[in-house]
Specification:
Number of domains: 1
Largest sheet: 2 strands, antiparallel
Shape: flat
Distance between the termini: 40 Å
Oligomer: single chain
Strand order of the largest sheet: 1-2
């Protein structure tokens, strides 16, 4: 099965930059404007609040305070999980123009899952 993956690896500044690119693209998609299930994924204000929360935790975690760093990690995991769910939904429901817009943003990658061919190894005697 094919899927779309968000570039969520790397240090926090790169992740923040990718998030700042992803959400404006998402908010301009036809899928988001017309057929968005707000009960499952949240409205634009809810998603923007998640981004703002991560940004606040990122800024407070720069001091090196351990509780702030733990809060930043938690906020990043929460935001990554929400983006993963959004991309799964977009894989199924988005039209071709929406998919192109996501891929052209540079922070979403098309990933093909290949099945491994496993063969039985012959036993040498």
């Amino acid at each position: 099965m094919d899927e779309y993956v968000f570039k969520s690896t790397g240090p926090d500044p790169i992740y923040m930059a990718n998030v700042n690119i992803f959400f404006p693209v998402l908010f301009n998609l036809e899928l988001f404007k017309n057929g968005w299930p707000e009960d499952k994924f949240g409205s634009q204000s809810v998603l923007q609040n998640d981004v703002d929360w991560y940004r606040q935790m990122y800024e407070s975690g720069r001091t090196g305070n351990r509780p702030h760093i733990a809060a930043r990690k938690s906020a990043r995991e929460h935001l990554s999980e929400r983006i993963r769910k959004i991309l799964r939904y977009a894989t199924l429901m988005a039209n071709e123009n929406d998919v192109k817009a996501l891929l052209n943003s540079g922070v979403v990658i098309y990933k093909t899952r290949k099945r491994a061919h496993r063969t039985a190894k012959q036993v040498q005697s």
